[in-house]
Design brief:
Order of helices and strands: EEEEEEEEEEEEEEEEEEEEEEEEEEE
Shape: globular
Structural class: mainly beta
Strand order of the largest sheet: 1-4-7-10-13-16-19-22-25
Helix content: under 10%
Number of helices: 0
């Protein structure tokens, strides 16, 4: 196994990546501020398993968080904002959990792709210009008790053939609330979709 540090109340500014955790390392990051990376504020690789709590990750050139190579990170009570691309990008079999985390003021909130799995539990996604949640190819997505609002495009877009679940979510004031496409069989339950400009839900062969 790799390193397992405790990083508390640190500010990390600039660089291609603010924090890179790799080679099966873990660690606990509490009350940190990561800003100004040209690529990703946090880059998780090689089955790493860090936990970030009450951190601010913002103003990155691409992503606040980029997880790949079966990384298994967790983000709790974090504030993620102001990135030029998606706030979080999960690919390469990564399995990442977000709890009580805010995604705001970027292009997309989270993209899950390439066999990755993303779980959002009691999270807020607001003020995004493209899809707040986008699941592609064979990704797995679980959205539990999340709130998605005031997004210029789609709230939740599920293009994946993998397992996707939307449970107890509230989606409002987006161009479209929910898009289901491709050949997946997602489960949508106990959720609200309302006050959307174009449609609350759209089911088709392809999603945008």
């Amino acid at each position: 196994s790799g390193s397992d540090p405790q990083i508390v109340s640190c500010k990390i500014t600039g660089g291609k990546h603010g924090i890179v955790v790799q080679q099966k390392s873990g660690g606990e990051f509490d009350d940190c501020d990561v800003t100004g990376a040209t690529s990703a504020g946090v880059r998780l690789l090689n089955e790493s398993t860090p936990i970030f709590r009450n951190c601010q990750l913002h103003d990155a050139g691409e992503y606040a968080i980029h997880c790949d190579e079966q990384a298994k990170g967790a983000f709790e009570d974090c504030r993620l904002s102001d990135c030029n691309s998606s706030i979080a990008y999960l690919t390469g079999g990564a399995a990442t959990v977000f709890r009580r985390t805010k995604f705001t003021h970027s292009s997309r909130g989270i993209i899950v792709d390439g066999g990755a799995a993303g779980t959002l539990d009691d999270c807020d996604l607001r003020g995004l210009t493209e899809a707040a949640v986008l699941a592609n190819t064979d990704a797995a997505v679980n959205l539990l008790n999340c709130r998605v609002t005031e997004c210029e495009s789609i709230g939740i877009s599920l293009k994946s053939t993998g397992p996707c679940n939307v449970v107890g979510c509230d989606v409002s004031k987006c161009s479209g609330g929910l898009v289901l496409g491709e050949s997946g069989s997602p489960t949508i339950s106990r959720s609200l979709f309302y006050d959307c400009a174009d449609f609350a839900a759209r089911i088709s062969a392809q999603s945008s």
